Amino acid sequence: MTRFYLILLSMVFVGCSADKVNDTDVLNDFLNEKELVFDNVIACAASNLNDQKVSVFFYPRTGAMNFQYFETETSLSDKNDLENYIKKAYPLKEIFNGYLMKFEIEAETEKWAIVTYEEAGKTHLSNPIRLKQISKPTEYLPENISIGTASEMPLFSWQDGVYSDTKIYFQVVSDVDDNLLSGTYTYDKMFTYYELDNVVLNITKTVPPILKTGDSYNFTLMGVSEDNWVNQFSIVDFEIR
């Protein structure tokens, strides 16, 4: 009988130790003694169209490395308390041939998330991202996008879906090989390639090429709320006539 209780007790201790979170998995401890740059990773999240996962997108600047994803237990957690964020290991995928990247998240509940990476000896953090895959699943509305294809500098315009709290729009023009040609943000529901008059943030690294008549391209739109949730995600292919 004594031997039975010893075995049972050892099983309890093993179970407890397996559930224990390592200190370095807590965001606040992970950042200890690092030189930090807050709110300096461009990131947002959207619920996927064809599965139950959430994609957390971010822009890795040239030279960035050691990409990490942290999340809270629930959306009720204090988003500003870094003790509430725990590191999670999720698949990391390239978007637009590595121009953007995303973590593929399996989340049964809504929560807050933060993306970090290292650049030039400093650790950069995104703003907290509110996952809303249950309460506000991302809309996929390619029919809401209009493209003036009669010009080498086409005008892209669009309409919101059912959500009225979109604060900023991210537009990507890419070629058929998924190479990003331009990546811009506007507050307006329109963007002319490649005019920057109404662009509030430009992540394009080089001067984009002129779009050629007869070639096919893609236009990707993300309508993002103030807490970095993607209300609308739409992709439309087009050809300059």
- What count of helical segments does DSSP give? 2
Q: What would you call the shape?
A: globular
For the CA atoms, what is the radius of gyration?
Answer: 21 Å
SSE order, one letter for each helix or strand: HHEEEEEEEEEEEEEEEEEE
Give me some keywords for this one.
241 residues, mainly beta, 6-stranded mixed beta sheet, disordered N terminus
Structural overview:
The structure is a single chain. The protein is mainly beta and 241 residues long. Helices cover 9% and strands 42% of the residues. The strands form four sheets. Strands 1, 4, 5, 8, 9 and 10 form a six-stranded mixed sheet that branches. Strands 16-14-13-17-18 form a five-stranded antiparallel sheet, with no helix packed on it. It has a four-stranded antiparallel sheet with strand order 2-3-7-6, with no helix packed on it. It is globular and about 60 Å long. Mean pLDDT is 91; it is low at 1-20.
